[in-house]
Amino acid sequence: MAVLGRLMAAVRGTDYVPGDVLKTLDELADMDDARCGAYTLYEEFYNGDRGAALRDRAREYLVRYGVPFCENFCEPVVDALAERLEVVGFQSSLAETDETTGMVTDPAGSLAEAWWQAARMDGLQTVVHTQALIKGDDFLIVEWDSVAGRPVFTRQRTSQVRVFYSDDEPDLIEVASKRWNTRTVGPLNPRGRTIQRLNLYYPERVEKWYRPHTGTDGRGGWDRWQDPGDTGWPIPWVDGEGRPLGVAVVHFRNKPLGDGKGRSRVRPVIPFQEQLNKYAADLNDLIDNHALPQDYVTGVTGDADLKRIPGDIWKFTSAEAGVGRLDASPASVILEPIEALLSRLARRSRVPMHLLTGGTPPSGEALKTAESGLVAQAKACQVEFGNSWEQAVLLAVRLAATYGNDETMAALAGADDELRIKAQWTNPETRSDSDDLGVAEAKHRLGVSRATLLRELGYDPEKEAERRSGEQADAAEALGRALGDSGFGD
């Protein structure tokens, strides 16, 4: 959709908003009901809200508290992958390592990690990764907090944000829009009425719009909005030299295939989940009605009070009376199809059976083989999600260089267009400590830096270097005291 700069020049400096501009704003404000409906469907299946169809009797004791009965396997299919995605730090192209001390100097990387900790992104990243796997998409907005003096990373609701990619460059976001309802009081809304807001994020500017929430029929009615503190409209989004900072919305996509959108990990699991729900309901009915042998009597007229009490004997006066028994139906007739279905689900989702159903996991090479598909998926996510995190941090660096204090700007000296940021991830493989150390030693012999290996093992290279330096100083001081006490210091 070619919307970048489209007719916006006609808006500036005038109170009148042309009809063509209003039409463009309506297009950008359209969050696409089909897209949002799909997000809701995937989340409901992940949460187990799409339960099994039960008979009235089963519903009495399985849905007593209003929670749908569901053998939910959408959740572990997502979580098994999300649990293996953890960013532990960032390294920039400005990093330099002192080969003598092992001390790493990386101003951009250090700032990124400080921002990461300040924003508590170690917890938020789990939400972002999980939501992107559930829905296929998730969004983050990067802005500058002038009070805190640092960039902030704010996760957005997927139903409120939409990105539009360039027709010429399919992986380039041309503009992003955020639409939401609010009662925020401001100069343009002094009574705090419900209004609809629309923010448009371009590479070089941010435009803020609003309209009354009712009476517009979803079309037109837009006017410019300014928040307290805004010095103009639109808000420039450029660095000190006038270069665009880039679109402030970062798009996280799971398994994109070149059309600008991600793929939900839940979607292909839904048919399996529906079938499992059906089997679970059948199993419940079988156990409820046919799990025990059933005795029957024939040839007896009227009501017969027959109870199975130990020691009692049934007596019949009719010569036509007869007694029989219906055998119990084995649960295996349902359990076996369930196990077969779970096996198919495991192969389809590439999640090992022991992670879906529990039980004792395999060990050694068998475990490595069983998890190979899941590990491959995790590494693919690390590439795609890593690109998004790196984009967010690069934008944060540009904001810091533009709006930061003198100390921050000095630390970012040299952070020019050639700056590169690399996200550091934990190893997605299930390994023991001894295995990890063995792999690290082998990589070190091949030339991998100590800093990179420490990050892969879950340690902070800078903190470890500082601790080693402190330990060496303490050891030297202790040795000096020992030599002095022994008389060798005289």
SSE topology:
Blueprint: H1 19-29, H2 33-47, H3 56-62, H4 74-82, E1 87-92, E2 96-97, E3 104-105, H5 107-118, H6 121-135, E4 137-145, E5 150-156, E6 161-165, E7 173-182, E8 195-201, E9 205-212, E10 223-224, E11 235-236, E12 249-253, H7 270-290, E13 294-298, E14 322-326, H8 332-349, H9 353-357, H10 364-370, H11 372-403, H12 406-411, E15 421-425, H13 433-445, H14 450-456, H15 461-486
Antiparallel strand pairs: 1-15, 2-3, 4-5, 4-12, 6-7, 7-8, 8-9, 9-10, 9-11, 13-14
Helix pairs in contact: 4-6, 7-8
Please give the count of helices: 15
Sum up the overall morphology in one term. Answer: flat
- Radius of gyration in whole Å, from Cα? 32 Å
Mean pLDDT over the full residue set: 84
Low-confidence runs: 1-14
Q: Please give the number of β-strands.
A: 15
What's the story with the biggest beta sheet? 6 strands, antiparallel
Give helix % range: 40-55%
Structure notes:
With 490 residues, the chain is α+β, with helices and mostly antiparallel strands. It has a domain of 146 residues. Helix content is 42%, strand content 16%. The chain contains 15 helices and 15 strands. The strands form five sheets. Strands 6, 7, 8, 9, 10 and 11 form a six-stranded antiparallel beta sheet that branches. A three-stranded antiparallel beta sheet has the order 5-4-12. Strands 1-15 form a two-stranded antiparallel sheet. Strand 4 and strand 5 form a beta hairpin. Helix 4 crosses helix 6. The radius of gyration is 32 Å and the shape is flat. It starts with 18 loop residues before the first helix and ends with a helix. The N terminus is likely disordered.
